[in-house]
Write the structure tokens for this entry.
Amino acid sequence: MEIGFINGEFVDISSPVIPIQERGHQFGDGVYEVVRVYRRVPFLLAEHMDRLERSAHEIKLTVPYSKTELKQIIEEGIQRSDLKEAEVYVQVTRGIAARNHLFPDALPSFTMTVRPIRDVPTNYYKKGVAVYTMEDIRWKYCFIKSLNLLPNILAKQTAIDQGGYEAILVNNDLVMEGSSTNVFVIKDDIVYTTPTVKGILAGITRQKVIDLAKQLNYEVIEDFYSVAFLKAADEVFITSTVVELLPVHSIDNDRIQGVIPGPVMSALSEAYRTTVIQVCKNESVSSQSNE
Ligand code: PDD
């Protein structure tokens, strides 16, 4: 079952509960997070809640719940949904007030949804996906996970309309990230990814993949690279909480040479899967022993 939560109450996900004066609706004045649930366990929850707090802090907003309360709300949502595999979205906004650009004297709003995971066709993991490069027209603070995603959705839709899966956003010929993913390149067994500057989101999956690559003794270079370097890569893959690691087979219709998925990505995917299984097994054991 799909679950909704707004300002302290669990609600029917399809009920029209957002007030007309909600600032998330009027201005996109808020931040959000996405957590993937495996076997009823929210994966890397602490990292996601830390980033939520950081994003909120950057827009001068305070998350209305402590980390312990957030964990309880999310876990209760998962329990009520009875879903083993799920996606949890949470949003924090500047609250409900008459429309005015100035910060209102209002309590922040907190909403959450717990829904089944979106199915990414298994074929995509075997054969890869097409991506299209596009100019990054977003603001300069994309390290904040803001609710304002208009440039991202326009870019993603443009990629989809060309028969692709993801848009790769490019700034002065440098690859920044995908519209909802981070990007990795493999060249001569070295792992390259864009550094966590203010212009990209510091992906939680990105960091996990970097940690795993280092554990597997790959050299990791966090630096900028050009579209030409991307197109000349041995392997390219995109990462996010939702897609995990997803191979790319072509960029602007130029095919990646070599097998898909490539050997380095395959090793990293396997390590990622092992981590998910270990972490979620341990957490579910420790929460059972706490009951
Ligand atoms: N998107 N970059 C952008 C712009 C993103 O929106 C996302 C995540 C990522 C990857 O971050 P992470 O590994 O922490 O999920 C990078 C989520 C999945 C979304 O908006 O649905």
About this structure: Residues 130 and 253 are 7 Å apart (CA to CA).
